[in-house]
Amino acid sequence: MDEFKPNAEAVLVSEGKVKYVGSFEVAKELASEAEIIDYGDNYVYPGFIETHAHGFLAANRLELQADLSQDKSMDAFLNTMRKYIEEHPGRDLYEGAGWDIYDKIPTRQLLDTVNDEIPICLNSIDGHSMWLNTPGCAKFGIDEEAVKKYGTDLVRVDEDGVPTGYISEEPVINILLNNKPPKEGTKAGLLKWQELAFSQGLTATGEALADKEIVPIYAESVEEGEFKLRTYGMFTVNNNAEDMVKEVETALEFKKYDSKYYKTVAIKLFLDGVVEAHTGWMEEEYADAPGYYGDKRFTDLDKYVTIVKTANENGLFVHVHSIGDGATKFGMDGFSKAQLETGIFNLRNSFAHLQYIRPEDIKRMVDYNVCGAIAPLWIPKSDSAFIQECEYLGEEKALEGYPMQSFIKEGVVVGFHSDYPVSTEISVPLSIYMAVTGKTPKDDYDMVRNPNECISQKDAVLALTKNAAYMLNAEDEIGSLEIGKIANMVIYDKDFLNDDIEEIAKSKLIATIIEGDVVFKA
Which element (helix H / strand E) includes 82? Predict the structure, then answer.
């Protein structure tokens, strides 16, 4: 992915960095006694980069939670939890993740049939909703006061005004951030997350839900010498804080934990929720709820501008969760005002997800150097979320979701993300395949949401390498195989730039290399 030297035969590594890229003969002459690793007719790439993931949540998912992501009905979710509790007796809280709405709306009474004595807390597949049993509601304060505080759009209630156990957005994030599992369990989970990432060809990721408790755990894991997955932390701040400058100052305090493998690089904000939870912030009212525009999680523009200016002036970019076109319009209003006042345009402020966006805001992203983290794994018409999007927004609007080519055509720097474990799958070949085709390999063509938004193979690979590094302010270290950069590489058995796209979907990872050392081998 070096435009001046796009192809080569050999990479020479010394002290963890690239010393030479070019012909095999010259590499041999430069280091006649070097160890030679010959991957034959396979293909070496720069280590792939995930711009927006949740390593902390992944750690807990892999170590401490039941996986519901393969189930396709409420009865299946309940059965999985029954089995999980039987296999893990003695806990004072049971957690799971990955449920979606298929055939029934989740209620605490349904979950009480699994266990009505021990709290159960289940995260939805998109990470923006939660399903609690009655003891879980009691444990986390989902009661009449919560209804008053958050409203019935976020804390659903029955006909008597009693919480049903189905909650979304702010109360969910508060539970996730305040319900930390034992540190040793999380550290063990982080190593599993690293193992998974390496096994998928990822060598660097953004941590999109960092906070004052998570950052030290990363730091300890790095210090103990086993954690080498380069992680770029996005410190989550309180949207509703009175003092937004103090929020940034708190994030800056945690830069003392920066290391070779973990750095706090950004402030993370939420502007809205997700359409399938009825909480994405749209410009036009919801089709099923006249007068309702979604969950506007940050509506004070002056506060938004203050936090962007303060972060940028202190060397942090701002990374924003934005699903609806209303949220992105508000975000661009704030980014443009802040950047005009500071004159700082090189910190790569960014939006994550960008399911819906107005064409004029795409142009504004280019003008103000705002990057886009998008998820090709979410593009096809799914058998659950897309149906809800049609119900909530109308089919015409739903079909506009997740543009990609529109960003690239205008000149937005686009990086890919899976949002794992919000996405239940993490795959470089599938990300490329779905960005190029708009569907999964198993889908028929009619599952393509918008064929005009499919992109080229080269743009897809750039989104996983050089563009992603640029977005994380790390292009001087990673993202391409160039002299002086960190020797992170992955080897696949397919040519992602030139092979037939159907073959790319079948590609296999051969090895992952960190600083010249093989950390995963098929």
Answer: helix 74-87
Amino acid letter, residue 210: A
For residue range 325-378, what is the model confidence (pLDDT) as tens digits? 999 999 999 999 999 999 999 999 999 999 999 999 999 999 999 999 999 999
Long-range contacts of 135-144 (CB under 8 A, 24+ apart): 136/108, 136/111, 136/165, 137/108, 137/163, 137/165, 139/93, 140/171, 140/175, 140/179, 142/167, 142/171
Question: For 191-243, how does the pLDDT look when each residue is reduced to its tens digit (9 = 90+)?
Answer: 999 999 999 999 999 999 999 989 999 999 999 999 999 999 999 998 878 89
| pLDDT-based confidence at residue 64 (cuts at 50, 70, 90) | confident
The pTM (predicted TM-score) of the whole model is: 0.90
DSSP string covering 203-262: EEEEEEEE-TTHHHHHHHHHHTT---SEEEEEEE--TT-S-HHHHHHHHHHGGGG--SSE
Please say whether the beta carbons of 305 and 334 come within 8 A. Answer: yes
Q: Is 46 helix (H, G, I), strand (E, B) or coil?
A: strand
Residue 182 is predicted with a pLDDT of 74
- Sequence-separated (6 or more) residues with CB below 8 Å from residue 522: 508, 509, 510, 511
Task: For residue 508, count other CB atoms closer than 10 A to its CB.
Answer: 11
Q: Are 349 and 335 in contact (CB under 8 A)?
A: yes
Among candidates 321, 344, 341, 336, which has minimal Cα distance to 367? Answer: 336
Helix, strand or coil for residue 163? strand
Output the 3-class SS for 372-395. Answer: EEECHHHCCCCCCHHHHHHHHHCH
- Tokens 């999380």 correspond to 186
CA distance 78 to 41: 48
At 95, the amino acid letter reads: E
For 487-520, the pLDDT digits (tens) are 999 999 999 999 999 999 999 999 999 999 999 9
- Residues, the chain, total? 522
- Copy the structure tokens of residue 270: 């939420």
DSSP helix/strand/coil, 396: helix
Which whole number is the average pLDDT over 273-291?
95
- H or E segment and range at residue 122: strand 120-124
CB-count burial class (<10 Å; 0-12, 13-18, 19+) for 47 = buried
Torsions phi, psi for 416 (to 5 deg): -90, 155
Q: Give the residue from 375, 380, 388 showing the smallest Cα distance to 323.
A: 375
CB atoms within 10 A of CB 177: 16
Tokens standing for residue 362: 């795409």
By three-state DSSP, how is residue 143 classified? coil
How many helices and strands (H and E) does the chain possess?
20, 20
Give the pLDDT of residue 101. 84
pLDDT of 318: 98
- C-alpha to C-alpha distance for 476 and 460, rounded to whole angstroms: 21
d(C-alpha 76, C-alpha 98), whole Å: 12
* Nearest residue to 267 via CA among 302, 232, 216: 232
What value does the mean pLDDT of the chain take? 94
Quote the DSSP letter at residue 447: G
